[in-house]
């Protein structure tokens, strides 16, 4: 800014010279400009106050002590009278040079400062944010400079860390070029140009001095009546305000503002100093000074801006970086729009919305584009991030990068590794302690460092993180998500002015969505992209407008030079500016998708040739595999379908990954035998405290060394650096035990046994029932995917809680198994050849689901699940081992397994695993097939005697061959019909309804909402099923299965039809049939296979499911998985005869043509010979229909049906004597 007064020559050689004209505020009289030579010759005259000028050297110019100068008396140069009589009308300065806007809070504070200044009153400015003070006070200086002519200079007394912050703020918010620092002890490049030159005094508007230097050298400041004195951050322990009062009393000033971040934390000494500095009224006479009394006196002078006010008024800003797309990214991005159409469902629009945002971030985040990317594919955001981090590194800042998901975290992680940028990242398994430790490590780092944070943990991290800059990599997190947290974070940053950068993709759906959420701040991404909450019209408008922008501006970025230009020219946006973006979204016509490309059909990208495993399985994909295993353990292979690789390859990759990270346990059997008994006992106790990874080793036993050696995956060798191997292995074992104690479908959580749990509850109100809910939730949703909505007050503790509970249950189980009474008194289970045969037969006909289910399905005299489990593992190891290795396992078996059986057992085990997985594939198999598969999964190929479904399926004549053949046929069937049948309105009038030859539906009951994903439990539901009598076990009777309601839960009851033979009940369908089976075995004195309670209640029946779907109240069962049906059902109202079954349909062979030799064949009634079996048509279901007649057209190839019927009728009319 140019000097407002004309310069005059200052001549000190004679007192008779005319006095110098008075100049502007703080401006000493100066001489005219001269040449450099004249300056050197007359230097002694220009600076008369310098002592011993002849001794000054070149080094003294830089290290000259302040005591060599006398204070400047420049009061006579100021032409100003207080209070000012004239105030100019000027426009209020509301914007900084960079475009930062002053919000209403700060504007009101500036106006109050002006009001108090004109009244001669000083103020206490309580700024809880500790950073709005910079812009507020700077704007106050600029506003008063513009309004009041010839305003004297002001003085700011601050701490050393804040000195450069005040200088930057004054330069940014004022137009003055005369802002100086009084001899700063630490000079930055910016400060060096603004240090006040005592050797050649100049005019100034604001002077900034460090607090410590003010206490020491206040007498050296220019002698002037200061317009305002700003005392900043006085509450620091090293130099409280009371220590500055003696020096302040020596200064002359008209107005003062004391700044504080916490007024209530002031000591009584500081409050007394405040009273003196701002010249408040004295304390009432006769009262002893107290903090409360000082507050009462000072309160009228206090102006406040609280954290809550700053948060509600969005008093912060960020720099917006609109990154263009790369060519490859643009091509794939526009491909998504070609899938859009006007009749999309809400779910389809939500999926398109997520895919569009992910494609704008990086194409590899979209599952449909994975195969179209190569290793060098990138995105505009990744390029921009690299440039931005290099800039932050040059400023020595600590940077936090916030992104949407762990996939994005890994994407950025690999990008930073490629660019050799040091960083820290959150692991998917990191919990509260690990997060705290990682944040502490980041906070303690010196200089440039980077922390990558997923957005779901940002709210937790923001409370303690001391980053200097925050980069929002996508819009899943913005400062609007945690306005209060941003305000508090901003107040903690002292070294550098805090900065926020928002990366968005230019001309994209993400940009349009960002602008919409900016205007509608009550909305969130969840409201827009969750099908349950989404507004279809809004979603369609957003997608259409983004498509219009994308097709109109489809120029892709080339190279990387654009990033540097964008970084310099990127705008600052203020969150308080609600009108920054357009208010409304353009409404496009309904046929917009047809107008985009009306003549050409969008061409689908041809999928490239699949990469070989060595190239496909990169470190990033192996990390994804590890994340799935960390949440769901081994066995859930459907979760790997997104990789679009064969199941055999996926299982081998998992095996190779686990084998690589599994610690090797060396066992020396000879040394073990030589140990003493005490040493063995200690070894066993130590074994209880550590994991031996039995389930992982059992899984690896199914693979030979040759199989795994064929999988050449180089990235396996680097995986340990990116995951926590020990935690992954332990979680897999914990999940295996969790699946053992928690059923997949558990309507009654009481069946989860917590005996052995010792960990204390999470709160005083936390119960064991909540622990059961937690374990069931972890079983269904995955260990690492426990929702934040599930007991949100304990969200950071739930995963660790699950781990701790399962560890305690495992230790308890091992302690029970290792009790001395069991180890010393019971001999190891020795399996006979008969036991061996039963176990092998069970593996062939039942598979190996869990040890409890397997042991329950075998008729062994002494049941010992641990011994059976161990023996089964020996058999499986024997079958999987090469022929030369089987000799070492053979001594552990009671009998050698034939070669054919050894090759067949693994196939059958895998077949039953496939069957049990298929039972829950409701969208792949019709309900009729699921009914049969569920019965096979429970009973196998041999225990069909207690299964009504299997008995009826084989018309009462079951065999392993029939059942296995039908299973094979079901899995080979590729095309499955979807048949829709209308249920008769008079269904209840037709009751009882025949379900099959062993089941009759008596009452479908009333659906009240009791259900699981697999079953619905109507209240007052009743079905009759054929079962054995307890009194006469050899006789089959009708057994009534009824569902009542008890204590708000379904209650299952079974009893004989007459109500006198037996009655059992329980919380689950299996409970009463378990008691029934026990009673029946005791009565018969022999083994009976387990009953499937759901099957006996008819809840597996396809017809029952079809009836439930159309019943009132079905909408209450939100989690129920609806089935589809491949055929129609007959609604027959009759009771079947026990023991009689409809004949199983057989293959009808085409009859041979009738020749002349047998044309005079004489029919016999009792000897049918080669006659075809009779064709029976049952027209009873048509009796209830209103029909006047019926015509049947019977046709058989190569046969005259009319003659056949005539001959048959003639034959029936003859007597036996005629034959």
TrEMBL record:
SNF2 N-terminal domain mapped to chain residues: 115-336
Protein name in UniProt: SNF2 N-terminal domain-containing protein
SUPFAM superfamilies from the UniProt entry: P-loop containing nucleoside triphosphate hydrolases (SSF52540)
GO cellular component: HDA1 complex
Region: Disordered, residue numbers: 1-69, 668-687
Sorted UniProt keywords: Nucleus
Cited PANTHER family: SNF2/RAD54 HELICASE FAMILY
Keyword Transport: no
